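Technical annex, item 7. During the second reporting period the consortium partners agreed on a shared format for inverse folding records so that results from different sites could be compared directly. Each record opens with the tokenized structure and is followed by the designed sequence. A conforming record, contributed by the partner at site C, is shown below for reference.
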């Protein structure tokens, strides 16, 4: 009788452990604009050295956002604890495409508000990029440097939001 009780406890423990072993997908980024929220999976998600990548071609999110309205972005700590940036594309009142970029140091921010310069401007695309430990290199394998002489890091993951007016 004692043996059957021990076997029952072992089976229950195995069931609990099995329940905990579910795989977790890639991190999601939350976009909020004009009263609507969407959680987006990355379009591409790689390891820190950008050697093993998973692609999610249907992961681009969409939101209806009126001209002049901002989009709030919330990233999980898995992204915010690394270098990351936001690219914002918007059309000005004349229809000219404008681009803004904002960089964040590791562990400095978990949120950002993407906004246009004028109330008549229309957000078009908001993209979050998580930077990896790999750097861009030229044909000879030498690092490509930015204007400050630092190696340009390569994006290891990105999340894309397409805006519909």
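Designed sequence (site C submission):
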């Amino acid at each position: 009788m004692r043996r059957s009780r021990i076997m029952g406890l072992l089976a229950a423990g195995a069931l609990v452990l099995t329940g905990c072993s579910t795989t977790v997908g890639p991190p999601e980024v939350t976009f909020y604009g004009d009263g609507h929220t969407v959680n987006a999976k990355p379009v591409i998600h790689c390891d820190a050295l950008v050697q093993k990548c998973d692609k999610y071609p249907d992961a681009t999110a969409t939101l209806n956002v009126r001209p002049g309205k901002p989009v709030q972005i919330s990233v999980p700590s898995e992204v915010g604890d690394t270098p990351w940036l936001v690219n914002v594309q918007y059309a000005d009142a004349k229809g000219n495409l404008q681009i803004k970029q904002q960089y964040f140091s590791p562990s400095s921010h978990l949120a950002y508000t993407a906004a246009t310069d004028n109330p008549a401007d229309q957000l078009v695309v908001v993209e979050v990029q998580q930077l990896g430990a790999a750097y861009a290199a030229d044909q000879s394998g030498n690092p490509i440097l930015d204007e400050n002489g630092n190696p340009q890091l390569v994006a290891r993951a990105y999340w894309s939001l397409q805006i519909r007016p």
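Helices lie at 2-20, 77-80. The first helix runs from residue 2 to 20. All partners now use this format for quarterly exchanges.
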